[in-house]
Write a structure and sequence with these properties.
With 158 residues, the chain is mainly alpha-helical. It has 5 helices and 2 strands; from the N terminus they run H-H-H-E-E-H-H. The chain has helices at residues 5-19, 27-42, 50-61, 95-109, 118-136; strands at 71-74, 78-81. Helix 1 (5-19) packs across helix 2 (27-42), helix 1 crosses helix 3 (50-61) and helix 4 (95-109) packs antiparallel against helix 5 (118-136).
Length: 158
């Protein structure tokens, strides 16, 4: 995870550029794109240095942030992803991540009856569905809707 919002903006901008195979991206193009994105999102107009973008590319390639981005340099000048479908936003969860998220869902489920957490219950259910989908690698065939506002619901065993 990037250490600050500016780094996150740069990483996402570089990612969008490298995913776009309709254009060949030089280091100068990436610097310009990052500078424009920082100005657009944060109002920072001093630009991005060459060294910053080079370090961002190096970090994206490494395992330090978990990206392991397959970034290629073509003709010693142009940057692109080796895998055309790769994106830093599509990194799959590991079994360890799924285990931790399952524990989090179990903890959040304990707050189900509290009135302050009513809007949280739908989010917990969606998170639980996403975890199940990630573990089994298949979408649910039948998905049952739940109505927590139904009268007499407390008399039905779950």
């Amino acid at each position: 995870m990037p250490v600050n919002r500016n780094a996150l903006i740069r990483f996402r901008t570089i990612d969008e550029c490298l995913k776009n195979r309709q254009r060949r991206w030089t280091l100068e193009d990436l610097i310009e794109a990052c500078s424009e994105a920082l100005y657009e999102y944060e109002g920072i107009d001093k630009g991005v240095s060459r060294r910053t973008v080079q370090m961002d590319l190096q970090l994206m390639r490494s395992d330090k942030l978990g990206y392991n981005a397959p970034i290629l340099v073509l003709e010693k000048k142009y940057y692109t992803y080796e895998d055309p479908n790769y994106s830093i936003t599509n990194i799959p969860l590991t079994k360890q991540d799924l285990g931790k998220l399952t524990e989090v869902v179990e903890i959040l489920r304990q707050f189900k009856g509290f009135s302050h957490f009513q809007e949280l219950s739908g989010k917990v259910q969606r998170l639980e569905n996403k975890i199940h989908t990630a573990k089994t690698n298949q979408e649910p065939i039948i998905d049952f809707e739940k109505n927590d506002h139904l009268k007499g619901l407390e008399h039905i065993e779950t």
